[in-house]
Amino acid sequence: MAEQVQERTHATKPKWLRVKLPTGKKFKELRETVDNYKLNTICQSGSCPNMGECWGEGTATFMILGNVCTRSCGFCGVKTGRPLPVDWAEPEKVARSIKLMDIKHAVLTSVDRDDLKDMGSIIWAETVDAVRRISPGTTMETLIPDFQGIGRHIDRLIAVQPEVISHNMETVRRLTREVRIQAKYDRSLGVLKYLKDKGQRRTKTGIMLGLGEDMDEVYHTIQDVHDAGVDVITIGQYLQPSKKHLPVKRFVTPEEFNDLKVFAESLKGFRHIESSPLVRSSYHAEKHIL
Asked: Comparing C-alpha atoms, which of 288, 192, 171 is closest to residue 237?
């Protein structure tokens, strides 16, 4: 029965979630560079619907610390298991890839590395430093895990001063245990508040809709992140990566996304609000540094 429900959900995907194939000179140049040098971007591996638009703006997302996560979130397509040892040459490799691709704005993200004493925070800081050194014209957003809420690990990111530090809430309080399993709603909220309290200039978070939340819960989450001092919020539609992942419970309409944007604007304090079905956490990332 579950598979039948999932198949029907895929079959009835609404027209507003259909996207055109990526085109444009900048996109084609980046695609050739990625293919020729066998570079890895989340844009491709995650089949992001906005890849063409973002690449056309000179923005791309890179994942560090391997491709195996120690957590098993029900929405995420990244493999779960025992990660490989840390590649200490990775910061240089990523920075050189960004330079080679002539990326104007890089979004860095990672798997969770709860297996490491530093949760991967040292590699995170070294990667930001390497990009600053090798591609000094590139601005950065770091989309970080929660580091189990441990301040000294978060401090390493604050110290290297990326233009934006982002940590995604992903969903509402009631669904956090089901959707994110090892994560905690208040811990993620605490990370965002800690970043701002410690002086991080620009903070950001993202949430997905369509996992079974009701709209009152979404409004409450927006209020929570606003109260934590978050500068940028992205709100988009959850799409099921595979039949093994949580099913889409509902396709939220563009009108509902617009209502959420109007509410967020009414709170006064968010510098940027992205709210529409195709929004992903890195959508329009290059504008969020302004």
From this structure: 171
Greater confidence, 124 or 80? 124
The CA distance from 105 to 118, in Å, is 26
Element at 12 (helix H, strand E): none
Give the per-residue pLDDT at 53: 65
Residues 203-230 as b or e (16 or more Cβ within 10 Å = b)? bbbbbbbbbbbeeeebeebbebbbebeb
Alpha-helical regions (H) of 198-253: 215-227
- In three-state secondary structure terms, 10 is helix
Give residue-wise pLDDT tens across range 73-115. Answer: 888 878 889 999 999 999 999 999 899 888 899 999 999 999 9
Considering only CA atoms, which of 208, 202, 165 is closest in space to residue 75?
Answer: 208
| Residue at 256: amino acid letter | E
Tokens of 198: 């410690």
Record the tokens describing residue 276, joined without a space: 């529409």
DSSP letters for 19-81: -PPP-SHHHHHHHHHHHHHT---HHHHTT-TTHHHHHHTTEEEEEES-SEESS--TT--SEES
Alpha carbons 174 and 245: distance in angstroms, whole number? 18
